[in-house]
Amino acid sequence: MKPKYIAGFFAFLLLILLLLAAGYQMSYRAVMDRQAARSEEHAPVSESISAEGEAVKEENPDAVEGYYICELHGFVVVYLGNRTTIYELTEIPTDELPDDVAAEVKAGKYAASEGELYAFLENYSS
Q1: Which burial class, exposed, middle or buried, applies to 60 when counting CB atoms under 10 A from its CB (0-12, 13-18, 19+)?
Q2: Which of 2, 7, 97, 111 is most open to solvent, judged by the fewest CB atoms within 10 Å of its CB?
Q3: Distance, CA of 112 to CA of 65 (rounded, Å)
Q4: Residue 94: which of 79, 115, 72, 110 has the closest Cα?
């Protein structure tokens, strides 16, 4: 083959490759735009609500107050006052607690307020 035909063949091949790359880029952008439009359609709408006045604690005679600090699968867990609803799972292993505290936790230590609860958790969490 003559050298001018070889140069023309490679120029034609380069042109085809450039057209293919441009077509790929255009189709990729179209797909990404479509995907972004779909995700915007399904995005949850959040609203900000403000209130005026003071918060009033509603007195509920059926409400069980206090917390129980117990053991579950070797870790400290906090239950609400009814001892069935888990309030907080912790990463505090019961085997790292002092013996007397571990015994109290296994029996179900009662904390009357959130302050007392978090004071206990803070003492033994780290």
Answers
A1: exposed
A2: 2
A3: 7
A4: 72
